[in-house]
Amino acid sequence: MIDGFNRTIDYIRLSVTDRCNLRCRYCMPPDGISCLPMREILTYEEIEHLCRIFADLGIRKVKITGGEPFVRKNICHLIRRIKQIPGIDSVTLTTNGTLALQHLEELKAIGIDGINFSLDTLKPAVFHQITGESGLEDVLAAINKAVSLQIPNIKINCVPVRDFNLSEIPDIAALAEDYPIHVRFIEMMPIGLGKDFQMISEAEVCHLLKDTYGSLEPIDGIFGNGPAHYYHIPGFKGHIGFISAMSHMFCDGCNRIRLTTDGQLKTCLFYENGIDLKSLIRNNCSDEELRQQVCLALQSKPQHHEISSLPPELRGMSQIGG
């Protein structure tokens, strides 16, 4: 698939639920959100049907997201089905890790191509302060087991937040010293409750890491589906990555689209425009019409998220698909 600015689109982030068992302060209010009723959420059969359409059009990589994917029952069944679709080369998953431990052996057997664990702190008290819940030990146990099972492409995603975890950045990065995993630092984006927090730039995080470890050596190459760029610290088994949507805009190389849990196909995280594929599929439109609508949506994908006249996205990340 080629969009209106000649970018190849081969990656979709697919949200399977807007529910989450945590209440991270930059993502969801303490009392939660008004979650969609199940009848408004795409069924697994509908998701698989749409994934076959996407594969026909050129999507090769699928990321399963939420909310928290493991909140939805039988998520491994869906992953197995998507893995079997001709043309899909990679199926990965992002999770907060608190519910992952019991599913890892099945994911390994299915052939999951990678898991991203969200982890903003190594301190139980700070974990509770950020998420509103306990569970850090469950996350760390899941990461350790994923490593022991030799699940490929294990990544840690950390959002630096000045009032919570900035002093821990070197310690979190050190997870890539002892394990063959990649630790990525993600700049806070002004989406939903993220607007209430100051963005910590890649430059500031790099400064903290250089103060601790000396040097960061840029690495050429792609270590995932999306826009992260990576550095190597001498002696580390894994790499340090950055996803810096605010200070290092990467729109020119954007290769992704998103499908929300209620079937809205979004071409840009920052804007609310999209196409309602759920209504089309439930009104029994043909596969050819679905393909045409997806291609039509692709042509409306903006060139950059800062210079568009499109209406801004007002939903939070858990409602869009993190």
TrEMBL record:
Description of how the protein assembles with itself and partners: Monomer and homodimer.
Cofactor note: Binds 2 [4Fe-4S] clusters. Binds 1 [4Fe-4S] cluster coordinated with 3 cysteines and an exchangeable S-adenosyl-L-methionine and 1 [4Fe-4S] cluster coordinated with 3 cysteines and the GTP-derived substrate.
Radical SAM core domain mapped to chain residues: 4-220
An annotated Gene Ontology molecular function: GTP 3',8'-cyclase activity
Similarity-based family: Belongs to the radical SAM superfamily. MoaA family.
Stored CDD domains: Radical_SAM, Twitch_MoaA
SMART domains: Elp3
Cross-referenced SUPFAM superfamilies: Radical SAM enzymes
Residues the entry annotates as binding S-adenosyl-L-methionine: Y26, G67, S118, M189
Domain of life (superkingdom): Bacteria
Binding site for GTP: R13, T94, K155, R256, I257, R258
Pfam (any one): Mob_synth_C
InterPro entries in the record: Aldolase_TIM, Elp3/MiaA/NifB-like_rSAM, MoaA, MoaA-like, MoaA_NifB_PqqE_Fe-S-bd_CS, MoaA_twitch, MoCo_biosynth_MoaA/MoaC, rSAM
Pathway participation: Cofactor biosynthesis; molybdopterin biosynthesis
Protein name: GTP 3',8-cyclase
Requisite cofactors: [4Fe-4S] cluster
Keywords tagged on the record: 4Fe-4S, GTP-binding, Iron, Iron-sulfur, Lyase, Metal-binding, Molybdenum cofactor biosynthesis, Nucleotide-binding, S-adenosyl-L-methionine
Top class in the EC scheme: lyase
Binding site for [4Fe-4S] cluster 2: C251, C254, C268
UniProt EC number: 4.1.99.22
